[in-house]
Design a protein that fits this description.
The structure holds two protein chains of two kinds.
Chain A (H helix, E strand, L loop, with lengths): L7 E6 H12 L1 E6 L6 H13 L3 E4 L3 H13 L3 E6 L1 H16 L4 E9 L5 E5 L4 H6 L8 E3 L4 H18 L2 E7 H5 L1 E6 L43 E3 L13 H16 L2 H4 L2 E4 L6 E5 L1 H16 L4 E6 L1 E3 L3 H8 L4 E6 L5 H9 L5 E5 L8 H11 L1
Parallel strand pairs in A: 2-3, 2-4, 4-5, 5-8, 7-8, 12-13, 12-15, 15-16
Antiparallel strand pairs in A: 1-9, 5-6, 7-14, 11-13
Helix pairs in contact in A: 1-2, 1-6, 3-4, 10-13, 11-12
Chain B lengths: L34 H15 L6 E5 L14 E4 L5 H11 L4 E7 H7 L1 H10 L4 E6 L2 E2 L5 E2 L23 H8 L3 E6 L3 H13 L4 E6 L3 H5 L6 H10 L1 E3 L16 E8 L5 H9 L14
Parallel strand pairs in B: 1-2, 1-3, 3-4, 4-8, 7-8, 9-10
Antiparallel strand pairs in B: 5-6, 7-10
Helix pairs in contact in B: 1-6, 3-4, 4-5
Classes of the chains: A alpha/beta, B alpha/beta.
Chain lengths: ~375, ~290
C-alpha cells in the first residue's frame, strides 16, 4: 500500500504523472474505457486507487465512463476519466450534463491524430476546438495544456482545484507525445500540495438552493445522501434545481454557468513566456508544440530575429487580453500547433488585424520540427 | 343548535405527499397514462421497505418515466437519455451506503441505454431498476421502441412494426440480474410488494411494470384508454418462477407476470473490496495498521 502522494524523484511518462497528479489532488474515483494513447492513465489508476481507498471501474464505453464520473462526483468523490479523440467525442453529451448541472470532475484527452479512428498511436492537437464547443449549446469551459510529464502532474492538481472551485468539468488537453514520453518528474511532499474541495453548504437544509450563486458566482455543493433532497437535472433549471421551461429561466441559468468563468479570468488563466519581453515577433503555442517553439525561438535569436514565446497553459477560456496586449507592440504572430489552424484562429481574432499572423501547423502524426518554425520566422518577417 | 364545521380550505393530504415535491405538481403525465400508478407503487414501496430514505436516491434518464426523478422528494437525478444506470453506478461506487433506484422507461433503458443495463446486471451492481414499459416512445409522440410488439403501429412504423421486441425479464436474467419480476400497473399490490422486496435485496434487481400509453400507443392501435387495462386484467397469467425464456409479451396468448428470479451472488462492490480494498472488509480491519 502506497500513499496518495508518492513524494520522490522519478522517471515517469506523462500518462503516469497525470494519474499521480490526480491522486495528489484527492481524486478517488476513475471511470474509464481503454483507448490509445490514454490507457496507461486508467491502468495506473486501477492499481493506485486501491492504495488510497478509492474506486476504479472500467465501464462498458466512454459514454458510461463519463456518466459514472458525474455520478461519483455527486456521490461526494473527486472523480475523473481519461480518453482520446473517439472517446472524447462519445463523452461530449455528458460533459454537457456536467456543465449544466455544475458538476466538478476532470476529463483528460490524450490527443491523437483524427478525424475518426485516425492515428491511434501518433500525437496531434486536433481536438482543441472540440474541447471548446464539442457539447451542444453555448457554455464556458476550462481546458489546460501541459508541456511535459512534470507539468501534467501539477496541472492535473490545478484542474481538480479549478473544477472544485468553479463546479464544472475541467479538461486537460494533452497529447500522445507528452502522454508517452518519459522524463524526470519530481513529486513534492504532500503538505506542500494545495488542494481545493467544493465548499459545503451551511444553514437550513430545506432552504438550500443548489444553484444559488455564492460570492464568486458558484453555489456550495452537497453530496447525495446528506439530507438536502436535491433535484439535479440537465433540463434548464432555476436556483432550486427545478426545471423551468421559460426564456427567463434559460437566460438566468446561462448567466450563472458562463459568468462564473468570465468573471474569474484572472484566477483561471495561466500563461508562461520565453524571451517575450523585448520580442518583436510573438510565437504562440501550447502543449508539446510549445517545446518545439522554445527551441525555435532560441535558434531565431541566434540568427538575430527578435522572437519570443507566449505559451498558453490555459487554453479555454482563451487568454484574449494577453494576445490583445501583444498585438499592440509586436510586428506579428506565429502560431505553432499540431493541427491546421485552430488556436491560430483565436490568435487571429484577438490580434484584430493589427499585425500579420502566420501558422506553423501540421495535420498530425508527428511533433513539429523547430526548423519549420525558424523557417517561418525567417521568411515571414 | 349543532355547529356545522367549516370544511378546510386546504387540499386533503395524500399519504405519499411527504415523498412528493408537491410544489412541482401538476405533473406532465397524460390522462390514462400508467406511469403515475407505477410511481406511487414505487413510493409506497420506499416507505414499506423501511430503508433509510435520507440515503436513498432516484436516478432517471429521459422520457415520460424519466420525469419521476423530478417529482420524488428524495435526492434525485434526471440525467441524459439512456445514462441513468452508469450515472447510478458512479453514485453507488462513490458512496456504497446509498440505496439507488433507477426509474425510467423502456426506450431509455433498453434502446439507447441497453448497453449499460447489460453491463450493470453482469457486474451485479447493487441498484434497483424499475422499467415502466409502455411499448413505445411516448414523450416524442409515439415512435416504435425496442419493446413495441410485432406489427403494432407507431408513427415510425405506420404500417406495422417489422421488428421483434425484447423479452425484458429474459434479458435481465441472461445478463446476471439477481432479482427479476414483471407486473402491470393494474397489479398494484403485487408491484408494490415486488419493488419493496427488490429495494431490500442486495444486488441488481429489475422490475418491469407494464403501463398503458393511450395517447400515443393506444390511439394508433385501436385501443381505447380502458382496453389496455382490460387486457392486463384478462390476459394476465401469474406464474412465479416461470422460465424467463417463456416471457415474450403476447396479448393473444396472455402475459406472464410474477417474480421469476431471486438469487444471490456477490455484488461488484463486495468483489472489489475483497480483491482491491481488503481493509474495507470487517475481518481485515486490524491490517489497517500493518
Amino acid at each position: 500500500m502506497k500513499p496518495a502522494v508518492l513524494t520522490g524523484e522519478y522517471f515517469m511518462t506523462g500518462d503516469v504523472a497525470c494519474a499521480e497528479g490526480a491522486l495528489a489532488a484527492g481524486c478517488r474515483f476513475f471511470g474509464g474505457y481503454p483507448i490509445t494513447p490514454a490507457t496507461e492513465i486508467a491502468e495506473r489508476m486501477a492499481i493506485r486507487l486501491s492504495h488510497v481507498d478509492g474506486c476504479f471501474i472500467q465501464m462498458e464505453d466512454e459514454i458510461g465512463a463519463m456518466a459514472s464520473v458525474l455520478g461519483a462526483s455527486w456521490g461526494g468523490m473527486k472523480s475523473m476519466t481519461a480518453t482520446s479523440g473517439p472517446g472524447f467525442s462519445l463523452m461530449m453529451e455528458n460533459i454537457g450534463l456536467g456543465i449544466c448541472t455544475e458538476t466538478p470532475c476532470v476529463v483528460v484527452n490524450v490527443q491523437r491524430g483524427g478525424p475518426s479512428t485516425g492515428l491511434p498511436t501518433h500525437g496531434a492537437q486536433g481536438d482543441m476546438m472540440q474541447a471548446r464547443w464539442g457539447s451542444h449549446g453555448h457554455y464556458e469551459i476550462i481546458a489546460l495544456a501541459p508541456s511535459s510529464p512534470q507539468e501534467i502532474f501539477y496541472l492535473t492538481i490545478t484542474a481538480f482545484n479549478l473544477s472544485e472551485k468553479y463546479r464544472l468539468p475541467v479538461l486537460i488537453m494533452t497529447d500522445e507525445i507528452i502522454g508517452h514520453m518519459s522524463e524526470k518528474v519530481i513529486i513534492p511532499e504532500a503538505k506542500s500540495i494545495k488542494t481545493v474541495s467544493r465548499p459545503k453548504p451551511k444553514g437550513r437544509k430545506d432552504r438550500f438552493k443548489p444553484f444559488a450563486p455564492g460570492p464568486n458566482g458558484v453555489a456550495p455543493m452537497p453530496a447525495a445522501g446528506e439530507g438536502y433532497n436535491l433535484h439535479i437535472t440537465g433540463l434548464t433549471h432555476d436556483e432550486k434545481g427545478y426545471p423551468v421551461m421559460t426564456v427567463e429561466a434559460q437566460t438566468e441559468m446561462m448567466a450563472r454557468i458562463t459568468e462564473k468563468i468570465q468573471r474569474n479570468l484572472d484566477d483561471i488563466i495561466r500563461t508562461d513566456s520565453y524571451l517575450l519581453e523585448d520580442a518583436e515577433i510573438a510565437v504562440v503555442s501550447y502543449g508539446i508544440s510549445a517545446r518545439t517553439s522554445i527551441a525555435a525561438v532560441a535558434e531565431a535569436r541566434k540568427l538575430g530575429i527578435k522572437a519570443g514565446l507566449l505559451r498558453l497553459v490555459t487554453i479555454w477560456p482563451f487568454p484574449e487580453d494577453q494576445i490583445r496586449k501583444l498585438a499592440d507592440r509586436v510586428k506579428g504572430f506565429v502560431t505553432v500547433e499540431i493541427n491546421l489552424g485552430q488556436i491560430h484562429r483565436e490568435v487571429e481574432r484577438c490580434a484584430g488585424g493589427k499585425v500579420p499572423i502566420f501558422l506553423v501547423g501540421h495535420p498530425g502524426g508527428t511533433i513539429i520540427h523547430p526548423d519549420s518554425v525558424v523557417k517561418m520566422l525567417m521568411e515571414a518577417f | 343548535m349543532e355547529e356545522i364545521p367549516t370544511p378546510s380550505k386546504e387540499q386533503p393530504h395524500h399519504p405519499l405527499d411527504d415523498l412528493i415535491r408537491t410544489d412541482r405538481i401538476p405533473h406532465i403525465w397524460c390522462p390514462g397514462c400508467g406511469i403515475g400508478t407505477v410511481f406511487s407503487a414505487c413510493l409506497a414501496a420506499l416507505k414499506a421497505s423501511g430503508i433509510n430514505l435520507q440515503k436513498t436516491v432516484m436516478v432517471s434518464g429521459i422520457g415520460c418515466s424519466g420525469r419521476a426523478a423530478g417529482y420524488v422528494k428524495l435526492d434525485s437525478f434526471h440525467t441524459t437519455h439512456g445514462r441513468a444506470i452508469p450515472f447510478a453506478t458512479g453514485l453507488k461506487l462513490a458512496n456504497p451506503e446509498l440505496n439507488i433506484v433507477v426509474f425510467s422507461g423502456d426506450g431509455d433503458l433498453f434502446a439507447i441505454g441497453g448497453n449499460h443495463f447489460i453491463h450493470a446486471a453482469r457486474r451485479n451492481m447493487d441498484i434497483t431498476v424499475i422499467c415502466v414499459n409502455n411499448l413505445n416512445y411516448g414523450m416524442t409522440g409515439g415512435q416504435v421502441a425496442a419493446t413495441t410488439p410485432y406489427l403494432a403501429k407507431s408513427t415510425t412504423t405506420p404500417a406495422g412494426n417489422p421488428e421483434t421486441p425484447f423479452n425484458l425479464p429474459l434479458m435481465a436474467y441472461a445478463c446476471g440480474a439477481t432479482y427479476v419480476a414483471r407486473w402491470t400497473m393494474l397489479h398494484i399490490r403485487d408491484l408494490t410488494d415486488s419493488i419493496t422486496e427488490a429495494l431490500c435485496k442486495k444486488g441488481f434487481s429489475f422490475i418491469e411494470a407494464l403501463s398503458p400509453c393511450p395517447v400515443n400507443y393506444g390511439r394508433r392501435n385501436k385501443q381505447k384508454p380502458l382496453d389496455m387495462l382490460k387486457l392486463y386484467q384478462e390476459k394476465a397469467i401469474i406464474k412465479n418462477d416461470a422460465d424467463p425464456a417463456t416471457l415474450d409479451i403476447d396479448f393473444e396468448k396472455g402475459i406472464i407476470l410474477g417474480k421469476f428470479i431471486d438469487l444471490d451472488r456477490p455484488t461488484f462492490i463486495e468483489n472489489y473490496d475483497k480483491i482491491y480494498r481488503p481493509s474495507r472488509l470487517q475481518e481485515n480491519v486490524p491490517e489497517l495498521n500493518s
